[in-house]
Amino acid sequence: MQEKKLLDTVMLAGELMLSGGAEVYRVEDTMNHMLKRSGYQDAEVIAFVTGIFVTLSDPQKETLTLTRRIRQRGTNINRIYRVNDISRRFCCDSMSVDDAYAELKEIQAEVLYSPLMKVIGTLSVPPCFSPMFGGNALDFFACALVGVCLAIADRLCRRIRLNDFCSSACGSFVVAFSALLINRYLLKAANSDVMIISSIMPLVPGVTFTTAIRDVLNGDYSAGTARILEASVIALAVAAGVGGGMMLFRTL
After folding, report:
1. Packing angle, helices 115-129 and 137-159, rounded to 10
2. Total-model pTM
3. CB 58 within 8 A of CB 40
4. Of 77, 109, 141, which residue sits at a domain end?
5. Do 247 and 129 fall within a single domain?
6. Which of 87, 109, 131 is the last residue of a domain?
7. Do both 24 and 104 map to the same domain?
8. Are residues 229 and 143 in the same domain?
9. Which residue in 8, 10, 78, 220 has a CA-CA distance of 20 to 30 Å to 152?
10. Same domain, yes or no, for 182 and 100?
11. In whole angstroms, what is the distance from residue 23 CA to residue 229 CA?
């Protein structure tokens, strides 16, 4: 049935956007525009941070309802842009439901960054932030060393599949402990505060918090509150990890 295929396509588009970090109002708007081709009298889309509900209703047709649980969330602006591009072409009748579904499945299966690229990104972010916090050339090199430790910790956390809270706490713990260790025994002239602050920047949930504020300003209070709580929990994990690393180093 073509309506069911359309519903699956629209749901997949919403799932990709929400898992990529799109605002709730953007997800609902995109899905509502795509559902205009369904021919149904009423189309309702309700999106939350953790799930999407879609219903098509018409007195002359069978009511269709689809629910999808969103288990993984992150930040992928490129994925959001590509889904929006597909939705625009779909709404302009320049592509069929089957073509839209096939392209969305390709986006879903695509790996944007390889593990090596993620490691390189984790290594390069801390030293690049050091000049912003008053660091010199020695601090730049020291932050690169801390970035190596953070990259190793991140890979280990992903391998044993820790949740976001534990991963952030573990990464920040390694950052604080390794920064103090490098400052004490390897680069004594480096600024340990700059090393720690610069190196925890990859763990700070700035994009999540910004998206939460945009959701709140657009009236999606449930989604905004959920994202603010998520960002607060991650920030708390980072603070606890840094404090634990500093405490352990001073104890030893």
Report:
1. 150
2. 0.81
3. yes
4. 109
5. yes
6. 109
7. yes
8. yes
9. 78
10. no
11. 15
pLDDT given at position 71 = 84
Strand residues in the chain grouped as ranges (E): 42-47, 51-57, 64-69
Q: What counts of helices (H) and strands (E) characterise the chain?
A: 10, 3
DSSP per-residue codes, 74-137: ---HHHHHHHHHHHHHHHTTSS-HHHHHHHHHHHHH--SS-HHHHHHHHHHHHHHHGGGGT--H
Instruction: Work out how many domains the chain is built from and give that number.
Output: 2
| In a shared domain, residues 15 and 80 | yes
pLDDT one-digit tens code per residue, 205-231? 888 888 888 888 888 888 888 889 989
Same domain? For 52 and 142 the reply is no
User: What six digits make up the tokens of 189?
Assistant: 């002239």
User: Phi/psi zone of residue 21: left (φ > 0), alpha (ψ -120 to 50 degrees), beta?
Assistant: left
DSSP string over 107-119:
HHH--SS-HHHHH
Compute the mean pLDDT over every residue in the chain, rounded to the nearest whole number.
89
Q: Read off φ and ψ for residue 150, nearest 5 degrees.
A: -65, -40
Contact 152, 172 (CB under 8 A): no
Mention every residue, 6+ apart, whose C-beta is less than 8 A from residue 78: 112
pLDDT of 104 reads 93
